[in-house]
Design goal:
5 strands
Length: 470
């Protein structure tokens, strides 16, 4: 091989390498500045105009208010919740990986050179190259692609589960916020009455009408009322913080025009009558159950892939060799043989994983059944307790408070006795708030068990869509 021929060959190889490198993708680095992210998160706020616009798009004609009602908060959750954004990103990742799973197996190129100090040869050089082309077909390829496609479905179910989990957290936070706020107001009035009652009794003790030791229970009641007010305040603040956390903003962002509103908070939805068919549909249609089914299908695809590995993997190896003036075109057929046990160990492992995935489905269905039945029982119990309180205990204490007003005007009772009657009525109101909160939490638990709204904000979206179709 003369120098000119060698130079041309080297130049061709260099040009081919340059072209291959030129076609490569380049991705710019994207470092994360945690301090900057923290600063942005601390100052985050809701774009109320964008939220209202989105509400009008998905629920035209729905009842809206100037402040953020539950429908607006639900839409804001879908737009701003970082956990939901992360789940959406996982769906995009799974879709990209599924696309990558469809590509053909990567070939490999081997370049060789040889120098021999043989004076009898025309050239001391021998140059060659060979390709290795794996043949990607059959169950090996289909199992890989099926598993990647199922991963996309699984990511979508994970997104649905994330939305439900965040919705549940948002609704529970709102229950604590509104129940706590209502209790703070009533506890403040009770505390004021306790202070006034204690002042009256202390005056009686100073005048000798009662003993000083008789004041001890009233001081204890006053201290308990102060603790209860602080607990209610903490419940309200904690509920608002939980709701804000779901929306990805600090609690201070949910103030003023962005303050949450729940106009019918004190009117929980009546327990629905679930048919056996509705329960079965919920047990078979929840995203977590379907996610378990996808995991089983992935295990089935893995098993098919392991079975396919019992057969040799085939690769084609065309080549080119220039050997001291002589051109050769070699061709190789490579077989990648299975392990000595014909892949039986891997197959048994895949079978065990499939069986475990099947057991997971049974567990998921049983868990759903238990959750539905428990939530139904709790909602019925909460509704009955609320009705009993409103029909009996609350009217009785309110009647006693009104009679105490009349008797105070007539001088039949003292100021301390009147204050005790008013406190009893307010405490019954506190019990009503607790009963309402319990009923709301039971309603949320049943919705979460069914993965279906009963009386939540999504019903406005559904009703608006039905109105459009009609």
């Amino acid at each position: 091989m003369n120098g000119l021929t060698f130079a041309r060959t080297a130049a061709a190889v260099a040009l081919g390498g340059a072209l291959a490198l030129g076609g490569c993708m380049h991705v710019a680095p994207a470092p994360i500045d945690l301090a900057q992210r923290a600063a942005v998160r601390s100052a985050a706020s809701l774009d109320l105009a964008a939220v209202r616009k989105r509400v009008e798009e998905i629920a035209p004609g729905a009842r809206t208010t100037d402040r953020l009602d539950r429908l607006g908060l639900y839409v804001a959750m879908l737009e701003y919740d970082p956990k939901i954004a992360q789940a959406r990103a996982a769906v995009a990742v799974a879709a990209r990986e599924a696309a990558a799973a469809r590509k053909a197996a990567s070939p490999s190129l081997t370049l060789t050179s040889e120098y021999a100090n043989d004076p009898s040869a025309d050239s001391p050089w021998a140059l060659g190259g060979a390709l290795n082309l794996p043949l990607d077909f059959g169950d090996r390829r289909s199992a890989r692609i099926d598993r990647a496609n199922l991963a996309v479905v699984a990511a979508r179910y994970d997104l649905a589960e994330t939305i439900w989990a965040e919705r549940t957290a948002l609704q529970r936070g709102l229950v604590d916020y509104f129940a706590g706020s209502a209790q703070v107001e009533r506890q403040g009035r009770i505390l004021a009455l306790r202070d006034a009652q204690l002042a009256v009794l202390e005056a009686r003790a100073r005048s000798g009408e009662i003993a000083g030791l008789d004041l001890y229970p009233y001081r204890q009641q006053r201290a308990a009322a102060a603790r209860a007010r602080d607990d209610a305040q903490a419940r309200s603040i904690g509920g608002l913080a939980a709701a804000a956390g779901v929306l990805g903003v600090p609690a201070a962002a949910l103030a003023g025009e962005a303050a949450p509103q729940w106009s019918d908070f004190d009117r929980p939805t009546a327990p629905p009558r679930l048919t056996a068919e509705a329960r079965r549909a919920a047990m078979a249609g929840r995203a977590d159950v379907l996610r378990a089914l996808v995991t089983y299908d992935q295990a089935e695809a893995d098993l098919r892939g392991e079975l396919a590995k019992q057969a040799p993997a085939i690769s084609l190896g065309p080549g080119y060799t220039w050997e001291r003036g002589l051109v050769k075109l070699p061709f190789a057929l490579s077989l990648s043989l299975p392990s000595f046990d014909l892949n039986r160990s891997a197959i048994r492992g895949a079978e065990a994983r499939r069986a475990a995935a099947g057991a997971t489905i049974e567990t998921a269905v049983a868990t759903v059944q238990t959750a539905i039945e428990s939530a139904e029982a709790e909602q019925r119990g909460a509704a009955a307790a609320l009705e009993r309180l409103r029909m009996a205990e609350l009217p009785q204490t309110e009647l006693a408070a009104r009679r105490a007003d009349d008797r105070l005007q007539l001088g039949a009772i003292g100021r301390a006795e009147w204050q005790a009657a008013q406190i009893a009525a307010l405490e019954a109101g506190l019990a009503e708030i607790d009963a309402v909160a319990r009923a709301r939490l039971a309603e949320i638990a049943l919705e979460d068990a069914l993965r279906r709204p009963i009386g939540g904000p999504e019903t406005q979206i559904v009703n608006a869509a039905r109105g459009d179709r009609q």
